[in-house]
TrEMBL record:
Classification of source organism: Eukaryota, Fungi, Fungi incertae sedis, Chytridiomycota, Chytridiomycota incertae sedis
Keyword Transmembrane attributed: yes
This protein's name: RGS domain-containing protein
Superkingdom classification of source: Eukaryota
Classification via CDD domains: RGS
Coiled coil start-end: none
Amino acid sequence: MQNDTDLNALARQLTQVGSLGLLKLVISSFHIVLIIICIPLFIRERKQPMIKHRSWTINILGCVTTTTYITPLCCFLPTYLRHYFLLQLPVLQTKLLDYDTMVDPEKYKIHSRALIQTKFLSSELGAWTFFLINSIPCFIILLYFLSITNLDKMALGLPNPTDASTTYIGLAQLVVSGVFLLSYGPRSPKDNFQIMTQFYIVTALAIGVVLTSLIGIVSGNSNVIKICHIFSAVLVFLTVSVDLIIPLQFLLTNKRYKLSPIRLSTGALKKRSVKKPGHSMRVQVNLSQENALSNGISSGEGATSEGSRSVKSQSSCAGKVANFSVPKILADPILYDAFCVYLAREFSMESLLFIEAVRWYKKQITASPTRDNIIALSEKIHNEFIAPNSVNEVNLPKKDVMRLDRELQSILEGESSLASTLAVYDQAAAHIEQMLTLNHLRKFVASSIFREATEAK
């Protein structure tokens, strides 16, 4: 008789939990539709900053595996770590513009080594490495508790070691992720793709999911468990929706989000490069500019898409662009520094680094046209900018890369004249300069960085 009473009580509890089936079905259907829409778009637009800088593959994994609970919670910390190192990447790249670093092999080697490490840690592969390191111990712990859990209790939704361990692991993951996010988030730019805003919202919602589950486990009351299930389902729905809808909104509307422009101090802009005896290499932006750079990475203008601009603003911008060119900007100390900040914000510093490296190469070869110097400098530029997957690889057409390889081979074999040696990178530098003009010049001239730089002159 007692057994029948216990079974009836368990059946009633199971029925109460099962009554949430319709809610979960609606939420799951909405998520499936969102994921089906987003995955092809994210794959196609994976190089767009608002997709790329969110570790899109890790985000998709977290959304697809929402029902597994542990997997999506292990995605938070790798995403934040990758974003943190991504913000550090252009700051390190800018340090390579320093004259002393350029001419000092030891300094250059140290900065290059740090840049290589940061580039890996800020890549999708780095995010997956973080994820594996972060998730494997959690799954091992989960498997242990699963082995000692009464599966009947688990099926009935009753408190059990597996659910408890899952909740505590999830809470630990979110606490660590939240602490790390708060350690660098407030100092990070409120960028034009609202990445930090999304991170804050998603983390807060996920913590709400875990705390709701924890309340249900601790209480043991069937009514409380039911309410916690409802709240948990709704919070999971909101978490996944925010994670997918914000980047989806950008893709569908093709608009940037308005935020406060970067403020650059006039004094910082005026403190510009100096020339060393026998050299005209630019000095790295000073400490004030470096702070402005780190505060300005990814911060954006309230620029709308091309189709939404008025004819008046188009003609105004076209007039400004016509008055400025990349060589003119690079020759102007104040505009050069402003362009550095802008390219760092756009994660395109390697283009400027390549142009400066080619200038430095010519000056060094002209000053000392020895075979050893030519070979050392040629290999240095090739290994850093031209070789596949190099630390500052620039986007050159395949035919240009093949031509460079042939010409560099001729240089190494001593078959090229001094004039040919000096001009070996000219075509590649011209291509990169053209890409800067096509991809960045118009946006730079329309930015508040350019406006403040011209006002400071």
